[in-house]
Amino acid sequence: MKTWMSFSDITRYRMDLGLLLLRLTIGFTMLFAHGLSKLERFPELSQRFADPLGIGSFSSLTLAVSAEVLASIFIVFGLLTRFVSIPLIFTMIIAFFVIHGVDPFSSKEKALLFGSGYAILLLTGPGHFSLDALLTRRFPALERILL
What's the average model confidence in pLDDT over 35-48? Predict the structure, then answer.
């Protein structure tokens, strides 16, 4: 009977806790500080929201809200984490280079920090404490897709 964790087990456990903390922090922060406020003001914002892609204010706002609300919820739960990181990364790239392109760096800082967190999750996956990991334990064939 094994009673002590090996050094590699402890390291992996710490990494998984770190990924959980990252997911919860950027997921909840994006959701509550950015996504829900846009969703609540959707009718008003849809008339004047920035249109960096040339698809119209309504469509641009819809894409931003979808990423900032729906994808953030998925990030928090660690569900389809790598896939939902992509629209969030794209949204942060647009925010950094286009929406705040001429602004001082302090205005771009949030987009860079959020985008970096999403890029980390794209590269690492969600960690052991996630629905993706739970699904792959239940259905091992999903491991190649999710993790």
Answer: 95
Whether the CB-CB separation of 120 and 22 falls below 8 Å is answered with yes
Give per-residue pLDDT as tens, 87-136. Answer: 999 999 999 999 999 999 999 999 999 999 999 999 999 999 999 999 99
Please tell me the predicted confidence (pLDDT) of residue 144. 83
> How large is the C-alpha radius of gyration of the chain?
18
Q: How far apart are CA 125 and CA 71, in angstroms?
A: 14
Q: What is the pLDDT of residue 3?
A: 66
- Do 45 and 19 contact (CB within 8 A), yes or no? no
Q: Is residue 125 classed exposed, middle or buried when 0-12, 13-18 and 19+ CB atoms within 10 A define those classes?
A: buried
Q: CA separation (Å) from 132 to 104, 125, 128?
A: 38, 9, 8
CA dihedral sign, ordered 63, 122, 74, 69 = negative
Whole-model pTM: value is 0.91
Domain extents for the chain? 7-146
Structure tokens belonging to residue 23: 């997911």
Find, among 73, 77, 87, the residue nearest to 133 by Cα.
77
